[in-house]
Design goal:
With 124 residues, the chain is mainly alpha-helical. The protein is 81% helix and 7% strand. The protein is built from four helices and two strands, in the order ααββαα. The protein has a two-stranded antiparallel sheet with strand order 1-2. The N and C termini lie far apart (74 Å). The mean pLDDT is 84.
Length: 124
């Protein structure tokens, strides 16, 4: 049973990784910070686990959807979904911060290159 659970997790993560790569290619034309936010959201959906029974874990997204469809009381599936919701909420500011840091680094590099070029033009 443990090997079956491990095999199903590996299959899930492999399929999720392939979908992640495909969506990254589709999102190529979006701004970097938006791409990062979507990427981090996808990673959260893939990686956050939730208990199915006391001894087994499954991806929280799947567990919550199945709990909602099977009519489990709201308090139960909300408790399982809370870590996923928090990770999804945190993904967007982290993605935008990542994009802002990258933009600042590129601006500093271009400023330094312009200053170096100006110096080389002044001192031939």
């Amino acid at each position: 049973m443990d090997s079956l659970v491990l095999l199903s997790w590996l299959a899930y993560l492999l399929c999720g990784f392939l979908l992640l790569l495909a969506s990254w290619k589709l999102l190529y034309w979006l701004p970097f910070s938006l791409k990062c936010s979507i990427f981090l959201s996808q990673l959260a959906i893939l990686a956050i686990p939730a208990p199915v029974i006391e001894t087994a874990l499954a991806p929280a997204f799947i567990v919550v959807i199945l709990d909602i469809l099977s009519g489990v009381p709201t308090s139960v599936w909300v408790e399982k979904a809370l870590p996923l919701f928090l990770a999804l909420i945190a993904a967007w500011p982290l993605g935008f911060a990542w994009g802002w840091v990258k933009r600042m680094k590129e601006a500093n590099q271009s400023t330094q290159q312009a200053a170096e070029k100006e110096e080389s033009d002044v001192n031939p």
